């Protein structure tokens, strides 16, 4: 099982370490051709506008969108969540537009307002220490989206079928439970034949 980590910005090495700890072969993805043969893809945090520009510049946008539409599991964390979202407050156009949610960027404040919170993530982990850095929140979800965790009544983790999104940085902890969950999603996806 081979899972890529989009290596345009963010804590790529940390995601790779956590995926390997969770039992997957993990690779950094710097060019669109490196998406071929992947069983899943992690889209790390960073600055969503910058990552979007880089994805356009290096022709990642359509191949990643196609992966999502074809049922390949995608996991977006922080800025990666924003990139997956169908709607972004204050922007006319979404980036990938795959996840049926609306997000608010920097919902919890600026860099100096970064914080940690203990989350109970439905079906995944109890007492999970999550790191929020200029984090978005999820303000609306379609009926197809399951909210897995909230902070102060704001959704911060969701799943829609093969798409997983977290407003926080699971790679910045020693807790591999979230990455194990995504690896299991990928394993189940590989076991399920597609039409």
UniProtKB/TrEMBL annotation:
Keywords: Glutamine amidotransferase, Hydrolase, Lyase, Pyridoxal phosphate. Gene3D superfamilies: 3.40.50.880. One of its GO terms (molecular function) is glutaminase activity. The keyword Lyase applies. Pathway: Cofactor biosynthesis; pyridoxal 5'-phosphate biosynthesis. It catalyses: aldehydo-D-ribose 5-phosphate + D-glyceraldehyde 3-phosphate + L-glutamine = pyridoxal 5'-phosphate + L-glutamate + phosphate + 3 H2O + H(+); L-glutamine + H2O = L-glutamate + NH4(+). The active site is at residues 78, 169, 171. Coiled coil: none annotated. The keyword Cell membrane does not apply. CDD domains: GATase1_PB. GO terms for biological process: L-glutamine catabolic process; pyridoxal phosphate biosynthetic process; pyridoxine metabolic process. InterPro entries: Class_I_gatase-like, PdxT/SNO. It comes from the Bacteria. One of its GO terms (cellular component) is glutaminase complex. L-glutamine binds at residues 46-48, 105, 133-134. Its EC number is 4.3.3.6, 3.5.1.2. Catalyzes the hydrolysis of glutamine to glutamate and ammonia as part of the biosynthesis of pyridoxal 5'-phosphate. The resulting ammonia molecule is channeled to the active site of PdxS. Belongs to the glutaminase PdxT/SNO family. In the presence of PdxS, forms a dodecamer of heterodimers. Only shows activity in the heterodimer. This is Pyridoxal 5'-phosphate synthase subunit PdxT. The lineage of its organism: Bacteria, Bacillati, Bacillota, Bacilli, Bacillales.
